[in-house]
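User: I'll paste a sequence; please echo it back and then give the predicted structure.

Assistant: Echoing your sequence first, then the prediction.
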Amino acid sequence: MLDYSPALMTDMYEYTMLDAALRDGTADRRCVFEVYTRHLPEGRRYGVAAGAGRILEALRDFHLSDEDLRFLADRKVVSPQTVKWLEHYRFSGSIKGYREGEMFFPNSPILQVEGTFGECTLLETLILSILNYDSAVASAASRMVSAAKDRPCMDMGGRRTNEWAAVAAARAAVVGGFQGTANLLAAQLYGLKAIGTAAHCFTLVHDSERQAFESQIAALGRNTTLLVDTYNIEEAVRTAVEVAGPQLGGVRIDSGDLASLAQRVRNQLDALGATGTKITVTNDLDEYAIAALQTAPVDSYGVGTMLVTGSGAPTCAMVYKLTEREGADGTMVPVMKKSKDKATVPGRKLAFRSYEYNLADAEHVISGSEEALAAYRPQEGWKDLLVEYVDHGQADPQWTGHEAIARAHAYRAQALAELPITAQSLMKGDPVIPTETEVL
């Protein structure tokens, strides 16, 4: 992988604020920052939180090398005194938030970061870039998985986005319910299932389609999936079964009217005795196209562009706002913006979800002082939505790695099933449950 510092994956004003705060003495004030979104993408009923595990991975390496420090000094981004402070930077604060795979809504406190102003402000851009993108992909993936019913969806979006975004998207897609990815680096880093066989160029480089199929089967076995729409689909399916026999694993269709083609191919395969051969479809799918294929004999979907672009919502519009800070006398003071249409709710937060007849009916955000929240008792049956990610600089390892992704994948399905069924509708509408905020 490239050798770079996550500590420079940020906006310059994080460092200039730090520099000024170190000069005036406010850099050491205890603070609480909160990540939330004011609204879901238009018409969406819910969002899926993703990216916290990647934030924890980035925190491990969030420090500046000598070369990084020279860069900041040479560009006069910060003063020599701040360079000295940065030499020893390690995040020593605490982070809690929604677990990956959890549903979120407007004003849900998705992540809360507590520490000194100096150490917390440097994390803003990195945290937002990870959460905004990963949650957008996971949210789109979840809608696609709902549309697919029990048929697996696979990530094939690596070539449709930035090379590093492709790795993040593969991970987020699995959190959102996908079963695997074509991206080998993502598969290696996170232990994801890797999928893929051959493209049209493999057929075209051979003198005949039959030779291409024979070559692929010789290399990958009869259980491979053959791409059958390079020339004529009916002829390709016939040739595929002749070459592989009825044990052929699958065929893939990447163009045309996918529903009618899948039906014809299914009937043809069955007539040829290949009743167990699976049909995969690709070709610029989104949740609406997948929903339109529900009655077609399709066994799995490969999704690219619309997955890695959030299916029209490539960001969740999350923000990182200061909600509480230490005053000059050492006491913690709730703070808020009063800007038009951008006002914030002061204070640190608790978050719960209430249920009626085993279905979620509201999100409850409770705001107040540390003491008031410690004394607060939720109503019986409310689910606590916040988990501890980092405790005084020590990250909990259960939230990173392959097993964490697998748990998030399973949790998303459970959390979605707890929402009213209208959450799975692709029709535009309001968030499926309201968010009720109480300030203690």
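The two ends are 48 Å apart (CA to CA). The longest strand covers residues 359-368.
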